[in-house]
Amino acid sequence: MNYIDLYNKIETWYHTHAFNHAEKDSLKRIGSAVAITYISYKITSKLYNAYFGPLSDVPGPFYAKFFQVPSAITDRPQGTRYRRLMSLHDKYGIIYKLDPSTIVISDKDWIKEILVKDDLPKAPLYNKLQDDGKQTLFNTTDKVFHKQRRRIVSPAFAMKYLNSLEQFMDSCTEAFVDRINRDIQLNNSGTDGFGSVDIWELLQCVALDIIGSTAFGESFNMVDTSDHFIPVSITRAMRFAPNLIMYPFLGKLVKIFGLNQSPELDKFMRDLIMKRLNSEQRRNDILQILIDTQKASDQEDRLTVDTIIAEVILFLVAGSETTSNTTGFAIIELLRHPEKMNRLRDEIDNVPVENDEALHSHDQLKHLPYLNAIINETMRLNPIAANGLSRIANSDVTLGGKIFIPKGTVVICNLNHAQRNPSYWPNPEKFLPERWLDTAETAPCMDAFYPFSAGSRNCVGKQFALQEMRLTLATLVKRYEFKPIPEELEAAKDIRQFITLTVQKNSFKVMMKKRQAL
User: Fold this and answer.
1) What angle do CA 301, 302, 303 make, to 5 degrees?
2) Which annotated residues bind heme (predicted)?
């Protein structure tokens, strides 16, 4: 081999090996430089926002300056997030930072500003509750969509229309009374006439029957059987829904594997709606209002069958657990304060039932001061939305004219803390229905009371819920004597927030018997 051949081989080896190696080293160096630059930028941005950004002066835990701790870690046991939010208020005051882009507020004027004056849209977390992107009145974050859908369904909850639904509520309530009587007789433990009744479960059953009768057109007969696949599947979904927020990856799995689909439920609802569509007979209920939209002159106002299914299921969920749990909390509070139970009973006893009817009419009950006081005080201490209402700033906002909130910030309005703030409520932790009466020394702070939210996203079913709670609570107090079970009262102190506030056991038993006068 001559020197020329040797030189050519060495040059070939260099170009095919050494040069490529040098090229790879160069690319690695460039990649490392880019990565270091990006990481440095992110760290610098985090540091800047933490110490010099628009929210840098908002107090809060140290970690909240830099990152968001997953709620799956912080909110343990599940359903106790509201406790952490309250404890942070106790430490930092009426405003604090939960993470770099989320603040929590409880000042009554700021809450009103966010919900009413600025009317901020719901935060993106509500998108996680949408079934395959299907929007409803509750889970939509689109203000235009909400305004149109609300206008379409509002007639179903007008006061005039609600009066026509009372007959269906009464029928379900009478079945509720019959079931309680059977349970008392079945679980009678002695000679005093008292029997054990799981009032929490039965309140859920009657609420499901009422919304089934008024929204679907037929009762589920849950009070009689405690078993129907629709409410069972809905309750299961309610318990699972918070996991979609705590564990975001679950949303993708749910969609991929169709875990959120219920062919049996879909068929039941579709058959029910098609039967009504093909029938010449009308029934004055919520379903009929939605079906009638298909004849609307404006094409955009016509709800499809799938849309009607989604909205009616929403009414089922929102109209059952919210009202039943609030009524259940009222019973628990009255058992803890028997003198208030007696005062409520005296008020109801002084209202004679009309025309030999089995139940009071809502017109007889809706203005009873102490009954309404009991319900209001229960909602103040046990707000269904105990985790607060989440909104997002779609533009820069200045709270109270002094706290700058940049666009993109999530603002959680903590109604629970506002409704227990001693600056607004004397003796805030005490159950004092008397604070709602005209004779109260200090008038209730209505600007710090949001049981049905406020602004454009306030609860469309507010009057429906109040009507149902008045009828149910008055019936129970009028017809029965109650005796608490100490172990049950103690267990009821463990309260959890899933989609709605509830007792951890999802059960509350009490000793009941029919009043002798009846």
Assistant:
1) 115
2) 459
Binding residues for heme: 459
What per-residue string of b and e applies to 69-90 under the rule 16 or more CB within 10 Å gives b?
eebeeebeebbbbbbebbebbe
Instruction: Yes or no: say if 89 and 83 are a contact pair by the CB < 8 Å rule.
Output: no
> Is 126-514 a domain of CATH 3.60.15.10?
no
- Segment 5-54, tens digit of pLDDT: 655 665 565 556 555 555 566 666 776 766 676 676 566 666 657 676 88
Q: Where are the domains of the chain?
A: 1-52, 126-514
Of 475, 15, 481, residue with least CA distance to 206: 475
Q: Which pLDDT score is estimated for 24?
A: 60
Residue 502's φ and ψ, nearest 5 degrees, are -155, 165
Cα separation, 302 vs 316, in Å, equals 21
Binding residues: 459
Q: How many residues does the chain have?
A: 518
CA-based nearest residue to 419, from 429, 404, 409: 429
Predicted confidence (pLDDT) per residue in 279-300, tens digit: 777 777 788 888 888 888 888 8
